[in-house]
Amino acid sequence: MSGNENKPINIAIVGLGGQGVITLAKLIANTNFMLGKKVCYNEQHGLSQRGGSVQSSIRINEADNPLFAAKDTDFIIGLEKLETLRYLYLAKEAKPKVLVSNRYDIRTTSDLGLEMFPESDDIDKEILKYSSATYIFDALGFEASVKSKLKPVNVAVFSVLTTFPELGLPTGKAEDYVMEYLGRNILLKQINKKAFKEGPKWMKKVE
Amino acid sequence: MKAADSKTDIDVVEGEGEEVQLLMGNRAVVQGLLEAKVGLTTAYPGTPSTEIQMQLYKLHQKGQLYFEFSVNEKVAFEIAGAAALSGVRSAVIMKHVGLNVASDSLMALAYFGVIGGMVVVVVDDPGCLSSQNEQDSRFWGKFSHLPILEPSTSQEIKDTIVQAYELSEKYNTIILVRLTSFTSLNTAEVKMKVVEEKLAKDGDFFKDIRYALPARYVLHKGLHAILEQIKEDEDFLGNNELKYGDSISDRLIITQGAIYPMVEYMRNLNNLDIPILKINAIHPLNEKQIGEFLKKYKYIYFVEELESYLESEILSIIGKYNLNLKVFGKEQLAIPEENRILPDVLSEAFKRIATDPNNEEIFKVKPPVPSPYAHVFGRVDQLIPRTIPRLCDGCCHRGAFYSIKRATKKTDIIPSDIGCYALGQVFPVDIGDFWLCMGASIGTAIGFSLTNDKPVVAVIGDGTFFHAGIPPLIDAVLYNHNITVAILNNSLTAMTGGQPTPSSDEKKAKNQRQLDIEQVVRGLGVEYVKSVRVEDTKENTKIFREAMAHEGPSVVIFNGECVVELYRHSLDLGEAPYVDEELCNMCGTCFIEFSCPSIIKKDGQIVIREDTCTACNICVGVCPQTAIIPRKKKKV
Ligand SMILES: Cc1ncc(C[n+]2csc(CCOP(=O)(O)OP(=O)(O)O)c2C)c(N)n1
Ligand code: SF4
Predict the structure, then answer these.
(1) Domains (ranges, CATH) in chain A?
(2) Which of A16, B257, B412, B465 has the greatest count of CB atoms below 10 A from its CB?
């Protein structure tokens, strides 16, 4: 890496309750910590219910303040499309990289006629407009390929993140950490190992 | 390197018995309590203080220290207070509004002081992300005459807790440690000592005439004397720091511990060569020291979250010492007095701090303050639909609401309470007209029933019922108030992450007896009491109508399970029921009235989403056409 090595890298992860946003933040933070880097992150989740809006921000090369101004955003990771759109205000000035899942959870409020939901294609256009590079993670495809009830999309996304050198997540170390942190039983270990191995297969850059 | 328990982050072993860990602020509190060898801890659940409590709960189950989820904050405080009077180090943990509940005991115990160290950890929730209101707990210091410390980072939180016990014992006073959702939920590095020993709670209570004293103003006087001493204490004052003190600027930013890291970040982002006075020892302030110190500066900027606490305290010091200073506070810097502070909320303030302080005009303009919730309702180039919080797919409360809705009219008055079931207000469930604070549904129901010629129903959860719902129910019995109370019993405090309540069974709460709500309610003298399962929606509607027709107070207890809790035990709850297309006549009862998010319209048909359905099967009984056919449900 260049002389810029100690410049903080600011990442926002967004999604819905139950998607593993906070776990993904922990995986990124702890792998960096294990490698001896300064890192901090926060969690922002209101209540317990499933399906609420969840956000976490992480700063690598920064010790104590995980929150950053919109214009300082380097990376947005969106596990759901509408939530990504919601936090796209972070991207307006900063033009960060955006990695977004193709999962789009249209809430019941739409069917009840309470809210108008944007077309999926329009969200894509919006993201393209405000990002320096857009990457799509095919969460739907990945989930369909996993046989078990547990669909560790966050682990697969984490493995995708190892392909971005600026995030400082060497594949081997990152995988070790997933195994150590999430592998409580053999079955889980197997599922996570597979998710980690196959994750990058489901990502493509939008040209 | 070694792995800690599965939920903890990785440890790096430093020296003998020392290591560095990534710790959330809340976990740093627990680490501080361990290092201070605190033997007795109590709490009442409340976000954002949850992780402190859950970790203590685990340590208690492992046998390392005593912890209990007390029935409410006042009781939690009293238990810890008596322990401290018996010479045992104790801690009590709660969220900001909890301190309102505990305050009666807090104000009085402050007079006696303590023998073993006692710390109250209170976590504020600016922006009310998970609370009924926002409060600035810094005011408790002046009100109760207790010292308040407000650390900035996980490391400071741990160190502050350890120091607080030393100060508490040195001055025989309770110490308040204030966190906010920012400091308590941030995770950062902490250098710490490994503490594995079992911490004792054996004390010795000495009777003292002071405790029975009638003219307590004498003790009040003593309390003032302690504050005078502590404000000269080097260790206490050492919590305040001048950052970037080698700057020769005649300008100074004054801020509080809780938002310091963000303020420092904004300073550096704007390339400002201005020092920052970071005040962690919020109460008492040392007027003389601050007065002397400010003489060096010409321009002072106050950057604070919530109320202008330091601004008004320090303005009075400036007045007292006749200092010739120009002060820029909330108004001049356009910092809101409500909601939480985020970097983007501070950007206008820092734009102003960066300008010429003598340019009066700029400081008079009132720009629109960016809402930290801009993203919720906000625009990029279009309106973004909200993610409205709603009851989970398969939540037992939905079944209870369905029966209550069928049994009541739109015009009936339904005060509800604080818990997941407060989400009953969300259309189209639409149950609940009024929310105040924990336990208030029953008291307000009585007031509404006395003054309105309409049926009144109170909705309350089991946790909230035990916390503060019993006294008002006694009132209803005493005066035969005509109200119906629906107790929604999921046997835990779901809203705050599934802590046990007195009605939790052994599986959930070891070392705790299970109270039967029906027995408790009968014991209070309520004559009409029915306890039902939420799934029997049709039968429950009849029962609820009958309860409402009963003269005087009546209680219906709806029993069911929290889905999030079920998922903690198993990922596989069973197979989703399906809709028989032949039988379904698209009446919309399941979809609109029952309103489960897993029931959707797809290609003109009602369909149950298999990926989100939790197989609670409550909808099966709701369908008037019996078109919803259950499949395999698993027993968890
Ligand atoms: C004085 C006070 N203490 C704590 C809280 C935090 N809190 C919010 S809801 C709740 C209890 C919820 O439990 P319950 O009534 O059983 O309802 P459930 O969420 O399980 O449906 C608590 C403790 C609060 N709001 N006020
Ligand atoms: S967390 Fe539990 S009680 Fe709360 S809405 Fe979800 S299922 Fe219902």
Answers:
(1) 9-103+119-206 (3.40.920.10)
(2) B465
Kind and range of the H or E element at B279? strand B276-279
pLDDT in the model for residue A109: 63
Q: Which CATH architecture has domain B10-230?
A: 3-Layer(aba) Sandwich (3.40)
| Distance of alpha carbon B78 from alpha carbon B421, whole angstroms | 29
Give the residue from B266, B272, B276 showing the smallest Cα distance to B241: B276
Given a contact cutoff of 8 angstroms between Cβ atoms, the answer to whether A95 and A132 are in contact is yes
Residues of chain B with CATH 3.40.50.920: 237-353
Phi then psi for B433, rounded to 5 degrees?
A: -115, -10
**Distance separating alpha carbons of residues B207 and B203, to the nearest angstrom:** 13
Of all residues in chain B, what percent carry a pLDDT higher than 70?
95
Instruction: Name the fold adopted by B578-629.
Output: Alpha-Beta Plaits (3.30.70)
Q: How far is A137 from chain B (nearest CA, A)?
A: 19
CA distance A101 to A20: 13
Residues of chain B with CATH 3.40.50.970: 10-230, 390-569
Per-residue pLDDT tens for A65-105?
999 999 999 999 999 999 999 899 899 899 999 999 999 98
CB B414 within 8 A of CB B433: yes
CB A47 within 8 Å of CB B130 = yes
The contacts of residue B522 (CB under 8 Å, 6+ apart) are B529
pTM, two decimal places: 0.95
Q: Do B265 and A115 touch (CB under 8 A)?
A: no
User: Which numeric CATH code is attached to B390-569?
Assistant: 3.40.50.970
Tell me whether A120 touches chain B (CB under 8 Å). Answer: no
Q: Which of B390, B395, B460, B612 to mutate to test the pocket of ligand 2 (most atoms within 8 A of CB)?
A: B395
CA dihedral (B21, B24, B29, B34) positive or negative: negative
Contacts of B498 in chain A (CB under 8 A): 48
Between chains, do B153 and A64 touch, taking CB under 8 Å as contact?
A: yes
Bigger pLDDT: B209 or B175? B175
User: Which residues 6+ apart lie within 8 Å of A114 measured at CB?
Assistant: B388, B427
pLDDT band at B14 (very low <50, low <70, confident <90, very high): low
Cβ-defined contact of B186 to A42 (cutoff 8 Å):
yes
Cross-chain residue pair A46–B382, CB shorter than 8 Å: no
Task: Report the alpha-carbon distance of residue B333 to residue B266 in Å, rounded.
Answer: 14
Measure CB to CB from residue B186 to each of A40, A51, A184 and give the nearest one.
A40
Closest chain A residue to B497, measured at CA: A48
Q: Which of A52, A65, A87 is facing B262, going by the closest CB pair?
A: A65
Which residue has the least CA distance to atom 2 on ligand 2?
Answer: B562
Contacts of A48 in chain B (CB under 8 A): 420, 494-498, 564
Ligand 2 centroid distance, CA of A14 (Å):
22
Any chain B CB within 8 A of the CB of A177? Answer: yes
**Closest atom of ligand 2 relative to the A47 alpha carbon:** 1
Q: Which CATH number is B237-353 given?
A: 3.40.50.920
Q: Determine the 3-state secondary structure of B54 from DSSP.
A: helix
Q: What is the ipTM of this complex?
A: 0.95
Contact B486, B556 (CB under 8 A): yes
> Whose C-alpha lies nearest to ligand 1, atom 7?
B46
- Say if CB B470 and CB B483 are below 8 A apart: no
Nearest CA in chain B to A44: B185
Instruction: Please give the single-letter amino acid code of residue B398.
Output: R
CB atoms within 10 A of CB A138: 17
